[in-house]
Each structure stands twice: as C-alpha cells, then as structure tokens.
C-alpha cells in the first residue's frame, strides 16, 4: 500500500514532533510513503519567505533516510490534468497534492488540513 503526505505532515515529521493522529501514524509505519513533487516546490517557497530554515531538498533527504519517503514519479502532465478538476481551492499546492494522490488510485493522503479532508475522502489524520 502507498500513502501520500502533504507538506505540513512532512514538516511535522522532519521536526521530530509529529503530533499526528493514530490512523496517520499506522500508515506511516506500514505504507510506502510518497510526496508529490509539488511538496518540494512548496518547501522552497516556504524557505524563501523564511518559514522554513532548511531547503526543501534537505528535508526530503532527511526523511528519505529516516522513513523511506520518496517523491512520486507520476507524469506531471497527468497530475496537472487531474488538478484542473480540483475546483474547491485556489491553492495550487493543495490542488496538485490532492490530484497526485487521487490519480494514484485514490491513495490515502496524510493531512491535517480540514479543507483537504472535506474534499478528498481518502484523507487520513
């Protein structure tokens, strides 16, 4: 089984104080963990505006080593095509992240974001 993590779930894990739900913790222990490449873009944005101290690549390398996290390699054109249908948000990051999980068989998406949970039934927290 695979599961995706959204940007904020990855940040929590990287800081070592995840405070995540029981269902999310189980998935992290048992699933192959993926992130959308859009998470890396959002990390860089957050780093550039001073909200993250480490560059995104460093965060992903750390979690690749610690929990086996990998960047999903679905074709971006397919993901972007699926994201066009995510009209519930103007947040391009959330649109792509949700579309990526949805396109990959409605895979679970570990997220505490209430808007994502409201619109993507496979959200786990």
Describe the model.
By secondary structure, the chain is an alpha/beta fold. It has one domain (about 1-125): 5'-nuclease (Rossmann fold, 3-Layer(aba) Sandwich). It is about 55% helix and about 10% strand. It is built from 7 helices and 5 strands. The chain has helices at about 5-15, 20-30, 35-50, 55-65, 75-85, 90-105, 115-120; strands at about 1-5, 30-35, 70, 110, 125. It has a 5-stranded parallel sheet with strand order 3-2-1-4-5, sandwiched between helices. Strand 4 (about 110), helix 7 (about 115-120) and strand 5 form a beta-alpha-beta unit. It starts with a strand and ends with a strand. The mean pLDDT is about 95.
Mean pLDDT: 95
CATH superfamily: 5'-nuclease
- Shape annotation: globular
Class, according to the CATH hierarchy?
Alpha Beta
Strand content: 5-15%
The N- and C-terminal alpha carbons lie at a distance of 17 Å
Briefly note the CATH topology name.
Answer: Rossmann fold
Q: H/E order of the elements?
A: EHHEHHEHHEHE
- What is the domain total for the residues? 1
Percent helix = 40-55%
| Largest sheet report | 5 strands, parallel
Q: What Rg do the Cα atoms give?
A: 13 Å
Structural class: alpha/beta
What order do the helices and strands come in, and which of them pair?
Blueprint: E1 2-5, H1 7-14, H2 22-30, E2 32-35, H3 37-48, H4 56-67, E3 70-71, H5 76-83, H6 92-103, E4 109-110, H7 114-119, E5 123-124
Parallel strand pairs: 1-2, 1-4, 2-3, 4-5
Helix pairs in contact: 1-4, 3-4, 5-6
